[in-house]
Write a structure and sequence with these properties.
The complex is a heterodimer of chains A (113) and B (117).
Chain A (H helix, E strand, L loop, with lengths): L3 E4 L2 E4 L5 E7 L5 E8 L3 E10 L2 E4 L6 E3 L9 E3 L8 E8 L8 E2 L3 E5 L1
Parallel strand pairs in A: 2-11
Antiparallel strand pairs in A: 1-3, 3-8, 4-5, 4-9, 5-6, 7-8, 9-10, 9-11
Chain B lengths: L2 E3 L4 E5 L4 E3 L2 E3 L6 E6 L5 E7 L5 E3 L5 E5 L4 E6 L8 E10 L6 E5 L3 E6 L1
Parallel strand pairs in B: 2-12
Antiparallel strand pairs in B: 1-4, 3-9, 5-6, 5-10, 7-8, 8-9, 10-11, 10-12
The chains are: A mainly beta (113), B mainly beta (117).
Amino acid sequence: NAGVTQTPKFQVLKTGQSMTLQCAQDMNHEYMSWYRQDPGMGLRLIHYSVGAGITDQGEVPNGYNVSRSTTEDFPLRLLSAAPSQTSVYFCASSPAGQSYEQYFGPGTRLTVT
Amino acid sequence: AQSVAQPEDQVNVAEGNPLTVKCTYSVSGNPYLFWYVQYPNRGLQFLLKYITGDNLVKGSYGFEAEFNKSQTSFHLKKPSALVSDSALYFCAVRDAGGTSGTYKYIFGTGTRLKVLA
């Protein structure tokens, strides 16, 4: 099993550009989520999904879109990048039950200039 | 509202000494509590969790955590620290809610553990 994979590892964008951060998992997990990690802020939930076709907003959803067309993939789209979106982005997955831990991808470091 | 607090930004401990990383929580209903560790330039790795049962939970790499319901705490402990334990540690609680009826994770802000040789 590859676990949770994320691409790209690094990305530099100019303000106003768009891009998609890819996330895939091969563990057949129902639950997937996107976080951003900023110094002193811990991890903040952007969007999450409990299964294909079902998504919900987290704590900081503005400026980001998601969709979940398959169990395996959960891409995060930045429609018009802003410097405030400079961060490290993590994707995670888990089974849907409340007692399960999450498995994290290696992260994408995004810089918006 | 559900929340998790890690009151210390950094904890320094000498190698071989016991370590404690503190976490307190606020939830309605039964708490489902987790500890994760993050090494530099890596994703988070699961260490241990409390779901129910014994208040002392054992996890990976010799870590354990003590659940205290009356103090709403879930402190991470290790009897003898190693330099290789130096990392960023996150406490998390799984929250019930969301429009789709799912359980969101809420993370603390993290505590940097530095073990000195």
